[in-house]
Amino acid sequence: MSPQKHRDKTEVKVELYTYEWEIHNFDLLHNNGLAVESSIFQVGNDKVQWKLSLYPNGDGTFDSDGYIGIFLRLVSPGTGPPVIITKCEISMMGRNITFKKDEFTHNYSFSTPQNGWSLFLHRDKCINALKSDRSMLVRCKIDKYTAIETKPVQRTKIFHIHNHRWEDDCRKLWQEPHLYSDVKLLVKNEKLPAHKLFLTIRSPIFAAMFTNENSEESKTNEIKIDDAEPAVVKAMLEFIYTDRVKNLNLYARKLFAIAHKYELERLKNLCEQTLYRSLNAQNAGEILMLAHSYGSLKFVDSIADFICEHFCDVVQSRAHYKIDNAQLLKRLMRSVAMLEL
């Protein structure tokens, strides 16, 4: 039995911040022991506040005369911890030159709110290389440690799930139907290749053709379709393979009929939805007759309700002449009469 193993990982989380402070006419600052202070700047979500203190000609400590001193001061710990572990990098720059860059790490708190250098840079080294406006740029980069988190090491994944789906394969067979084709649909003068598997699992009518060994379709592997145009049959095949029709609004009326013929119920529902969205006073009579011939009772009711609500517009457009079913006309007349009561 192999020994058990456990491995942890400790992560030190850090917030990074850069503050830049430009001091104009720096060469005029030469008072010994007096500091120039930056504005207060805030770092991190816990709103810790800082400022820089710069001594242009010594901070009053021993041998600091003639040197520039620079310190990072903690103004307020905000909502952070009582001790703030901070790494600080300070640079002083003039005209196309960095005079000096240095860094330190310090545990800031109320008892130790400041850290930096009394002898950061000799003043004479930078005076002659200031910018054209006699300014100097101080850049302060702060890495503030926010948390230390230890957690178990997860096993490295050594496998990849390929982003390839069944519907991609189905669409490929629809776009290239000659691949592995085992049946043809004879439509007018065209022969459309297809696959029995897709036809039978989507349509009970096609399934009945190929499960009957004595049927003409089963013997010849050909299906004759004389009551639809090739474009409509191609749209039906697109639905059979991909469960959608790209230009359904162009073929909705004719697809409605062929979907009814081959019992493609979902395609019928999609056609009903598309036809209802296109409904207006001019086409209401024709769509009502389609609904009566091929649709569900609910679809017929929806079209009839629309005609009753817009009866004057339908009559004015003469769309009611398309309704050649006596029972439908009687129903509409009764519904309109009820609305007028």
Descriptive overview:
- The protein has 341 residues and is α+β, with helices and mostly antiparallel strands.
- The chain has three domains: 8-151, Apoptosis, Tumor Necrosis Factor Receptor Associated Protein 2, Chain A; 164-272, 2-Layer Sandwich (Potassium Channel Kv1.1, Chain A); 279-340, Serine Threonine Protein Phosphatase 5, Tetratricopeptide repeat, CATH 1.25.40.
- Helices cover 35% and strands 29% of the residues.
- The chain contains twelve helices and twelve strands.
- It has helices spanning 123-127, 166-175, 196-202, 204-211, 216-220, 230-242, 248-261, 265-277, 284-294, 297-309, 311-316, 326-340; strands spanning 8-23, 36-37, 41-43, 48-55, 67-76, 84-93, 98-108, 114-122, 136-152, 183-187, 190-194, 222-225.
- The strands form three sheets. Strands 2, 3, 4, 5 and 8 form a five-stranded antiparallel sheet that branches. It has a four-stranded antiparallel sheet with strand order 1-9-6-7, with no helix packed on it.
- A hairpin with a 4-residue loop joins strand 3 and strand 4.
- Helix 7 crosses helix 8 and helix 10 packs across helix 12.
- The termini are far apart.
- The mean pLDDT is 87.
